[in-house]
Amino acid sequence: QVQLVESGGGLVQAGGSLRLSCAASGRTFSRYAMGWFRQAPGKEREFVAAITWSGDSTYYADSVKGRFTISRDNAKNTAYLQMNSLKPEDTAVYYCAADLTRRPWPVVASTSFDAWGQGTQVTVSS
User: How far is CA 121 from CA 11, 58, 75, 91, 94, in A?
Assistant: First the structure.
């Protein structure tokens, strides 16, 4: 199995930036795709971004395209989500997830990810 731990959440004003990190342990990090999801109060968990095991391809939800950037450092077993131009509607708990089965790309469904972190809160004030 793999263990995922997110960090970097917090409170930021609209227009600001945050960088989330997801530290992985337990299995070879460089062998699986990673994704970020978010869940706002009273809403379904939604896809945010994903990156292939090698980092050569990324995929984004339309709502964050051009503002968020997903990346990874396989040497550090860590994935990142750089969030710029944040909006109040970005407020949510953000989760990182791992596709341990190497499903066809792009991997966007939450059911396609096998391991999840505990989440980190991001709050954007207006």
Answer: 8, 23, 26, 8, 6
